[in-house]
Amino acid sequence: MGIVRRQLQIKALKLFDLFVMTFAFVVAAVPVSQGGEASFADFLSMRIKVENFILFFGFLALWHILLVSMQVYESQRLVSRGDEAIRIFQATSLGTLCVTLLSIFFSIRMVTPTFLLVFWMASTGLTIGSRLFLRFFLERLRRQGRDLRHVLIVGTNSRAVEFARKLEFRSESGYRIIGFVDVSWNGFDKFCQCHFPLVCDFNGLAEFLRNSVVDEVVIGLPMRSFNERCLAVAALCELHGIVVRFLPGIFNLKLAKPRAEDFGGDSLITLSTGPIDGWPVVFKRVLDVVTDVHL
User: Fold this and answer.
1) Which pLDDT score, from 0 to 100, does residue 80 have?
2) I need a surface site. Which of 2, 159, 178, 225 has the fewest CB within 10 A?
3) d(Cα 87, Cα 92) in Å, to the nearest integer?
4) Largest CA distance in the chain
5) Any idea what DSSP says for residue 277?
6) Considering Cα of 58, then 275, then 226, then 79, what sign does the dihedral take?
7) With bands split at pLDDT 50, 70 and 90, how would you rate the model's confidence at 214?
8) Residues 243 and 228 in one domain
9) Burial of 235 (0-12, 13-18, 19+ CB in 10 A)
10) Looking at 121, 143, 165, which one is the last position of a domain?
11) How many other C-beta atoms can be found within 10 angstroms of the C-beta atom of residue 184?
12) Are 158 and 95 within one domain?
């Protein structure tokens, strides 16, 4: 039921973003028509034409692709407000650039510098504002014990325990720690002094994943010493469709889609086991190149 609810929320958010883009178009047309650069009646009549109707909906599809390429519909629990705002800023800026190119190619008189400026400001401001409001609402729910993600941590070393404490401290992120997975080792007595439970060892992990609700697995084992074990755990999670997060080290899994994130100063690499979209990757690469050039 949680997966279905999440999918419905994402679809509703996508529709809302398309509405925001359409609203920004209308808002941008007002100052242009009042300034005498082009009449609002011309704009309305232009939209009635079949080719412009197709063009507009084509841009709606492009706008959607740009937002998807910036991963704004992925879980933002571990993404800071600033990073999320930057992603939206990049997407709306590139979208405005696309409007500019389309207006030149199709000779759309209504799209003037004033139109572009107002459209960019309206689409960026409204989209970022809606995300901040959504964050505020969801964080309140999570502090009340709702909309939680169940997390299993592999490894009982001090670094893994410290990360678990950070998750507990950040209650607004909505993570509930199920427990830890490990075997007895030299520093295990120190782990036993904390309040976190040990739910199983590595041999019992497969059965635990089958019989328990686990949304995400965080691997805290040293990669050099436990590379094969980490790979086995990640592959097992991939089989069950569970999101994997881990500290340094990159796994060469065929289906998983990695991305870097930051949480409380710790660098994480997340493996999402969903389908890899072609066009979002292309647009993301274009934005990365443009950003590197300007930096």
Assistant:
1) 83
2) 225
3) 9
4) 78
5) P
6) positive
7) very high
8) yes
9) middle
10) 143
11) 12
12) no
Phi and psi at 277, nearest 5°, equal: -85, 140
Q: Which residue has the tokens 């909505």?
A: 174
Q: Which helix (H) or strand (E) holds 269?
A: strand 266-272
Same domain, 135 and 185: no
The enclosing domain of 186 has a CATH number of 3.40.50.720
What's the pLDDT tens digit per position in 92-150? 999 999 889 888 887 777 788 889 999 999 999 999 999 999 999 988 888 888 888 99
How many domains in the chain?
A: 2
Does one domain contain both 186 and 81?
no
Contacting residues for 58 by C-beta, under 8 A, at least 6 apart: none
- Together in a domain, 137 and 211: no
The H or E element containing residue 127 is helix 113-143
Q: Which of 118, 143, 168 is the last residue of a domain?
A: 143
Q: What is the pTM of this model?
A: 0.68
Structure tokens at 175: 């993570």
* DSSP assignment string, 145-197: T-S-EEEEEE--SHHHHHHHHHHHH-GGG-EEEEEEE----TTHHHHHTSS--
Give per-residue pLDDT as tens, 243-271. Answer: 898 765 445 555 556 566 666 666 666 66
The answer to whether position 290 is within a domain reads: no
Domain encompassing residue 235: 149-272
Q: Which of 157, 151, 217 is nearest to 186 (CA)?
A: 157
- Domain-located, residue 286: no
